[in-house]
Amino acid sequence: MRLRGSGLFEFIAQWFESLAVWRRTRAQLGQKRRSLARANARQRALQSQFEALEALQAQTKS
Fold first, then answer.
1. What per-residue confidence (pLDDT) applies to 1?
2. 54 C-beta neighbours (distance < 10 Å), count
3. C-beta atoms surrounding 35 within 10 Å
4. Confidence at residue 62, expressed as pLDDT on a 0 to 100 scale
């Protein structure tokens, strides 16, 4: 036996499920962005350290 108006409950349940999927996807994208930002910052720091070492080497050779 099917309850009257249960289609509305199914619709609401599907809506909440799609909302949960959307939120998970957004969270994963945010996590990927943060990971890329950290990797980029590490790369810039390493590049800066390398340039500082090169400048120090150039000073000691002079």
1. 45
2. 10
3. 10
4. 72
Residues in the chain: 62
What does DSSP assign to residue 62?
A: -
Q: In angstroms, rounded to a whole number, what is the distance separating the alpha carbons of residues 59 and 48?
A: 17
Percent of the chain topping pLDDT 70: 92
Q: Identify which of 5, 8, 27 has the alpha carbon closest to the alpha carbon of residue 16.
A: 8
Tokens representing 43?
């790369």
User: DSSP characters for 1-50?
Assistant: -PPTTHHHHHHHHHHHHHHHHHHHHHHHHHHHHHHHHHHHHHHHHHHHHH
How do residues 38-50 score in pLDDT, each as one tens digit?
A: 999 999 999 999 9
Query: Is the pTM above the cut of 0.70?
Result: no
